[in-house]
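As the next step, I selected for study a record pairing a protein sequence with its backbone structure tokens, which the following lines show:
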Amino acid sequence: MKNSTRWIIGGGATVALLAGGGGVALAVNADNGDDRPDVALTGDVLEQASEAALAHLDGGQVTDTEVGDEEGQYEVEVTLEDGTEVDVHLDEDFTVLGDERDDDGAGEESDDADEQVAGPDRDLAAAAATEAAGGGTATEVEIADEATGYEVEVRLDDGTFVEVTLDGDFTVTAVENDDD
């Protein structure tokens, strides 16, 4: 009888510890929204959010999107013609709540910022990268770290990302999963 009582008490204590530990993990996760993976916008939502952000900024290039960010229902990152990046925050009705410009200022590069590509080179690199990835949307086109080509982030139709590396002639040199 004493052994049975020990097993029951021990089992109850284990369940209590597991339940308490799970509650702590949930509380920690709920307090820190940055632990959630970014989810990119797709389909009609992507189109409506992009239109609202570009209208708000009078143009630019949509380079990234996110659903459920901390400042609103949707976030659309736009790169302006001068290279400035702006995050536009929207509510669930695609009404602009505000925008946040990068801290570097127009045309200035921070030490850890990648140089964005614009114009015809961006279009050529994006087309080559999306073809190599088997479809999707090019969300970022940057000068490669070695400055001898391009790195293109492609969002696939399933919401995952791949990074496509191209040489200076827009020839694909690598396609890799991008966990960023």
